[in-house]
Amino acid sequence: NMDSTLHYIHNDSDLSTNSSFSPEEERKSKVQDVVPQALLDQYLSMTDPSRAQTVDTEIAKHCAYSLPGVALTLGRQNWHCLKDTYETLASDMQWKVRRTLAFSIHELAVILGDQLTAGDLVPVFNGFLKDLDEVRIGVLKHLHDFLKLLHLDKRREYLYQLQEFLVTDNSRNWRFRAELAEQLILLLDLYSARDIYDYLRPIAFSLCADKVSSVRWISYKLVSEMVKKLYMASTSTFVVDLMNELVEKFCRCRKWSGRQTFVFICQVKCTFVHRFC
Asked: Which regions form coiled coils (predicted)?
């Protein structure tokens, strides 16, 4: 009788007080009353690595693609039903499975809320940051969407890791650096003037000197927005120091390309300059 099994029997406090479960308790921990239990059990069983090897090598990827939809249907109160499955998929040997989860982790964070995100998704997110470029790009494309859901203290911890996005497995992967510049523009709204000056400024200057013109053009916009953000901050010394560095590094550069960079940055921010001068 399906009705006898479709009931919710665990809450977060119950799960936190038990360090291990018997097979029966493990089965009960995945019981919910939103969808037919047999349907959920079938979905969870498809993530078994041994089944992927014998039935369909793409089955884990399909399960990873569907997981945010399953989580949304079950609701955050039933996340305990999916937590183990999510961790299994996040450590799958196939990079395509991990890549799929990396592209959707920000959507899952919205569904779960800040507490579950900090406890269950942040460790997975940190693992993706150290993964292959094919996986890291999924995190990078939605870096702002994920970080804005974290508390300020937790968000600031990632300032030290942004520099690592400049290093890729393939140096010719310029689209990776272009996406980083795009995300940094969005991240300006999440951090203080000091954080922008101390951590984002060096990355922006490095991107302005990139070998690929497409990356440089996006970086000019990034520096322009950075000047605007620092100008609007209560501490004006940061924008003065930034402007002096722009003049010293690019305007007075011995290479014509450096001086051209200064002109392009001024061109991008000319509207801003006219507004405040």
From this structure: none
